[in-house]
Amino acid sequence: MTSRLLDQVLIAADEALRTLAGVAVAARPTPGKGGSDPSADSERRNSAGLMRVNHAGEVCAQALYSGQALVARDPRIRDALQAAGAEERDHLAWCRERLDELDARPSLFTPLWYAGSFTLGVASGLAGDRWSLGFLAETEAQVEKHLDGHLERIAPDDQRSRAILTQMRDDENRHGETGRSLGAEELPQPVKRAMRAFSKVMTRTAYWV
Ligand SMILES: [Fe+2]
Ligand SMILES: [Fe+2]
Questions:
Q1: For residue 89, which ligand has an atom nearest its CA?
Q2: How confident is the model at residue 15 (pLDDT cuts 50, 70, 90)?
Q3: What is the Å distance from ligand 2's center to 61 Cα?
């Protein structure tokens, strides 16, 4: 194994452990501090379910970017993946903090979401940098749409969660643009459909457990 590859493997292992141990630290302050919390119990439970889904999504993002960066060929692309991955780490830490505030736990299947997404990241990376970027751009587009849906479903008085989701959506939009500017390939429709199916399983499960 070359020393560069060994370095990348160690980075990937470190990222996995940090994500799974729940010790990710955000570089940016959490959005929405000082905003209101949902008043009704049912709204609070709904916020907890939605934030558990978003936390699971950010676990997937960590795994995906980590797997893609591991096998990226072009160093420019690897750097972009690692830079976006750092922003995703903020998202992960914000969602985790918000779950704690709502007295809720992350999904029990977190290691499974990580393993599945890491595998997808490596697979899309091995298909070549342009396909890997295409996969990234499509993921970000789907996540952005999903976050818009959550912003409609979350109680208006849960300003704290809303501020986090809004900032995440803006970041995801930028990640997608970065992917396209680096030469992302448009994915075939069946792949897009398979991605939507995977995220549906994840989001429906993580809302409850
Ligand atoms: Fe994210
Ligand atoms: Fe993103």
A1: 1
A2: confident
A3: 7
